[in-house]
Amino acid sequence: MSDFPERVDVDYEDGAGETPGDYPSLQHKIEKAVAVTRRGLEAYENPAVMWTGGKDSTLTLYFINEVAAEYGYEKPTAVFIDHYQHFEEITDFVEHWADEWDIELVYARNDDVGAVVDEQGLDPGDDIAVADLSEHNRHHVREILEYDEDTFPFLLDTYVGNHLLKTVALNDALEAYDIDGVISGVRWDEQEARADETFFSPRHDPDLFPPHDRIQPILQFDERDVWDAFWQVVVPETVEAFPDDGYVPQSADDLPTGVEQADVPISPKYFAGFRSLGSEVSTEKTTAEPAWLQDLEGTTERAGRAQDKEDLMERLRDLGYM
Fold first, then answer.
1. What is the pLDDT of residues 277-298, one digit of tens each?
2. Are residues 51 and 81 in contact, defined by beta-carbon separation less than 8 angstroms?
3. Cα–Cα–Cα angle for 273, 316, 292, nearest 5°?
4. For all residues of the chain together, what is the average pLDDT?
5. C-alpha to C-alpha distance for 158 and 177, rounded to whole angstroms
6. Per-residue pLDDT tens for 135-149?
7. Please, which of 28, 44, 209, 229 could form a disulfide with 23 given CB 3.0 to 4.6 Å?
8. Whole-structure pTM over 0.85, yes or no?
9. What per-residue string of b and e applies to 9-42 under the rule 16 or more CB within 10 Å gives b?
10. CATH: 3.40.50.620, 3.30.499.10, 3.80.10.10, 3.90.228.20. Which one for 1-322?
11. SS3 77
């Protein structure tokens, strides 16, 4: 891929200055998602989709499935970043639907950090000594992050932890699989640091990451739009016994006759009241109501996430975080 990015013909300004309000209906948003997805599958030699098991990346994967089937594209590999602190239900969900949707699933892990954790029997929150890491990871800690402490906590939603467990793992996977386009499910409204993103976003600095582009088909969806898309389109078209009249369940026990929760491509954590999914040790739910029934407009989507990472989001994204 020595000729990347010159060989890629995409509009890096597409979406600049726009907001979800520029797409006035769910249909407009879906049509744009399909167009961006189709262009992404056409323009890149080896695209991959980042799949967390969350609502946004699962919706993105649904569009990929539909576009690949409609236009005859090969489905891209799904990359799941295993940061060692997942809810077990999320990994089960991802593996189940990868099988159902015939998606090749690969895991991106920072094996060096994982080995230190295993060898020393560390639990989330325990300190990891920088000196115990590989040269590759020490370089990221000292030179990229400019972190000068002797230790850092084994926690995902912190500056060093997030970078090593997610970004370094992702970048190593991009290099290992020679990926030139990363399809992700970020949205403009989700976090302030993402509000200026475009549908095709360059990441070309070789000092920070393997050069690639981000392909972002659902920027124009807000949180309500995502749930509307699931209950009006994704679930009725995916689950044979589900009605297509816009039925929205009030709980996991309120599904239509003949439909089990495992039949629905929505993580069980959302049914349980979680609104945003992070690590098991740093994500909480604020109510028992399913996510789509909560006050989406009057409360903050990521309120249950560790706020030290949220406050650092812009710098983390500059370093390659999603």
1. 877 776 777 788 999 999 999 9
2. no
3. 20
4. 92
5. 27
6. 999 999 999 999 999
7. 28
8. yes
9. ebeeebbeeeebeebeeeeebbebbbebbbbbbe
10. 3.40.50.620
11. strand
